[in-house]
Amino acid sequence: NPRPRRFSSPEMSASHDVERYRQGYPGLQDNPEADRNLMFYQGKIKSEPMGDLIDNIHKEWHGDYKRLEIHHGYIQWLFPIREMGMNWDSQPLQKFEANKIKASPELMERFIRSYRLMLDFYGMVLENESTGKIKRGSNYRDRYDNLENRAHNWLRITRILKCMGELGLEHYKIKFIRHVLREFWENELRQCFQSLKNYWIPVIKSKDEREKIYAYFEELRARNEEKGETKGKKENGQQSGKEQSGKEQSGKEQSGKEHQHSDDANAQKSTSEKQQEADRSQEQSSSESAPEKQTG
Question: In the chain, fewer beta carbons within 10 Å around the N or the C end?
């Protein structure tokens, strides 16, 4: 597992595609005839290859973790971005498509359901749809293990975060990243650290918001270190208490032994005195009876 560390600088080294993303893909032109992402979200066409209509995916694929893990052709449709992915049956998102999806409450609701589908797959739950706050799901233990050991899911998350930005859900990105940071300091999702550092945080478009995330990371670090120090002091105190209690118990046992020894000695002394008195009594009795015998 990667060791907890400080970010080396306020601006982490982002890959070239992250830089282009933040800059809005300079020079990239829309193709007005490329509208398959829009049609998919409108429920008019199926995802390809071997896919389905979006409402069917939301309903029938939810919780089907094996299919969501091994099927590699749906993520580009649910979360289209302006770059070409590994699925040649999909197409890059066009600006006009993004604008039309953002303008439609129905289509944005479908996008939220797509997000919920993947959050559940990753062991998380969208707690507040307005703010984007998320929390652990009841299935988090098994799903976190899968996320940590299936690196292609880290690439999927980068795509999801980029897509959020294209659809005006920048605040959703921030809540997701803050959740992962909290889990990191709970010793969860440690294997995702490099993606978190080099891709997920850098795709936040606002420099100020990125700075806040770095500050939040350091805040969590300080809390964790303080918690560790408090725990250490508590454990040391408990150990010291045990040692002191042990010493007191040992002292009591020694005192008990000395007291018992004294009692035994006194008992022996008392027995000896009684024996001496008995002997004297015997002698006295002998001396008194002897003359009587002689006299008789």
Answer: C
Q: What is the dihedral of CA 67, 73, 78, 81, to 10 degrees?
A: 140
Task: Give the position of tokens 């998102």.
Answer: 93
Is-cis flag, bond preceding 4, omega within 30?
Answer: no
Which DSSP letter does residue 18 get?
H
Lookup: tokens for 155:
């690439």
Spatial neighbors of 209 by CB under 8 A, at least 6 apart, are 170, 174
How far out from the chain centre does Cα 221 lie?
Answer: 14
Q: How far apart are the first and last CA of the chain?
A: 112
pLDDT in tens, 213-257: 999 999 999 999 988 776 666 666 666 566 666 666 656 666 555
The Cα–Cα gap between 170 and 166 comes to 8
Q: How do residues 58-104 score in pLDDT, each as one tens digit?
A: 999 999 999 999 999 999 999 999 999 999 999 999 999 999 999 99
- Do the Cβ atoms of 131 and 174 come closer than 8 Å? no
Distances (CA, A) of 211 to 207, 223, 258: 6, 18, 70
Q: Are 75 and 37 in contact (CB under 8 A)?
A: no
